[in-house]
Amino acid sequence: MALALASAAGVRKSDTNPCPFDEQMLEYYRDLLAQFDVPYEEGRLRDGPNVSYTELADALLAAPGFEVGAPDLVLLTYAVPDLHPLRVVSAYVNDKLGGGAHSMALSEQGLRSPYTALEVAGAFHRSGRCDSALLLVLEQTSLPYHDPLVHGTPLAETAAALVFRSGPGPVAGPTWTGTPDELTALLDAADPGTVVVAGPWVATGRTSRVVRCDRGTYCTSVWLTLAEKQDLWRDNRSGILLCDVDPRTGRAHAVRLDPARTASEARP
């Protein structure tokens, strides 16, 4: 039996924290950015929300009604660097949940990271090493430099957590990557019963059964919507298509969640 979506939680943080860095850490940032000729802007840290991925992960794990248990696999994904560059948040979460999981982070892929994480979870499951997986998708905006996407959109502090287990529920198919035009054609031709969860940069002429993600999200877009609107996938019998276009790469990404078939439904 494939891994199916069993539980989810979403978090939006609007509060702010004081800048947590001492002079030694600020010097680290100055030296790091100088190597890449990126202007250092300390004021963005001083005035930013300063919400770390550790804080977002803690908020997700404490979300009311979120059932995570002790997963076999913890996958942390993000597109914007953490506020604290030296913390290993996937290992931190693993430790909080008992320390018995494989844990890793996937980054440097833009908003594709969570889609890749689904492929990784599926591979672990097929190898017999995973009957439950926790996927964390995190986004924060306090950076010591100007980022056009982060500050121009602007993005907000958001996070989503999804638990996949062997059992009933929506099962993710293979992930899809293409051009924005190819995605538009894919959506317009999709079965009318399919629920489309479309990220902020998706263009489509489809008018029914489309759920638009809020602007102000990037990597978290469709996953936060899925976590906050659980009626979209609980008892869904027609399938859900999650999709977005990465404004940084111009690539479109999608994955379909279909109801797991019972043994009788699987017979020819």
UniProtKB/TrEMBL annotation:
InterPro entries: Thiolase-like (IPR016039). Gene3D superfamilies: 3.40.47.10. It comes from the Bacteria. This is Uncharacterized protein. The lineage of its organism: Bacteria, Bacillati, Actinomycetota, Actinomycetes, Pseudonocardiales.
